[in-house]
Amino acid sequence: MRRRRMIIALTAAGVLAPLALAQAQGRDRGRRPDAPVPHQRIERIRQARERARETGAKLELNESQRKALAEIVRTSVEKARRIAHDRDLRPAELARKLRELRAERRQAMAKLLTPEQIERLREWKRDAKPRLRPGGDRRRPMWRGADRPF
User: Fold this and answer.
1) In CA terms, which of 18, 43, 77, 113 is 20 to 30 Å from 71?
2) Quick one: CA dihedral 22, 20, 35, 52, positive or negative?
3) 0.85 exceeded by the pTM?
4) Half-sphere exposure (Cβ direction) of 118: Cα atoms closer than 13 Å
5) Can you give the pLDDT of all 150 residues of the chain as single tens digits?
6) What is the dihedral of CA 38, 136, 90, 45, to 10 degrees?
């Protein structure tokens, strides 16, 4: 009798354990382990909006420029998401495509801004503390480059 109960318990555990594991994995499906949780995403969105407001105020954008710039950023973010989610891209190709997208965004912004605003943006970036490259490399700040309009 005891042996029979043991066999039934082990069989039930063998059947139910994979189901419970699959259910637990289903909740995390589609989310990278390092992806921010929802409240972190909300905070990042809030920070991005605040930076956009500050940038608009410093550059003294008019309403049409503000709308056009928002559209440029929105389409750039959508393209970046599509590129980042493309599982067929190798890391080098992914980096190249994202660099091209950033260059495309900078050129579109340069067409939109007046020469005075571009100069103000250059000064603002020059005065900003340069970000370090990954790994703390201090050789050259990441945002400086000869081919960039600002």
Assistant:
1) 43
2) positive
3) no
4) 13
5) 677 776 776 666 666 666 565 555 555 555 555 666 677 778 888 888 888 888 888 889 899 998 998 899 889 989 998 998 888 889 899 999 999 999 999 999 999 999 999 998 888 877 776 655 555 555 555 555 545 665
6) 20
